[in-house]
Specification:
The protein is mainly alpha-helical. Helix content is about 60%, strand content about 5%. The chain has 3 helices and 2 strands. It has a two-stranded antiparallel ribbon with strand order 1-2. The two termini are about 45 Å apart. The mean pLDDT is about 75.
């Protein structure tokens, strides 16, 4: 697959799930300070978005993109290793043939 085709598939997945990578998320992350009348220091409690983890369409799109990218990387690595193995085996066969010719080994061994 070419790079352009992969990028097209990624943007198609984002569009399908209604996501935009160009706009900021409207979620509020982090801790929310709790104000107290008696205490001057603010107590920190977890935000509601952290307490209730909800699977969003953005999460689904991100998971899909990650799986596609990881699959592409794995296929490229497998192809590279197969090519290296073929080159190594061809070199070993060539060296074995040269050794047989030099030492007059029988062909059956």
């Amino acid at each position: 697959m070419s790079g352009i085709r992969v990028r097209t598939q990624i943007f198609a997945a984002l569009f399908h799930f209604g996501c935009s990578i160009f706009k900021a998320s409207s979620k509020k992350h982090g801790a929310v300070p709790k104000k107290s009348k008696t205490d001057s220091t603010a107590e920190v409690e977890p935000a509601e978005s952290q307490a209730a983890a909800v699977w969003t369409p953005e999460d689904t799109a991100a998971t899909k993109i990650q799986s596609l990218v990881r699959g592409r990387i794995a296929r490229a690595e497998l192809q590279r290793r197969k090519q290296e193995k073929e080159e190594y085996e061809a070199l070993m066969n060539k060296l074995e043939q040269e050794v047989r010719k030099l030492n007059d080994f029988p062909q059956g061994t």
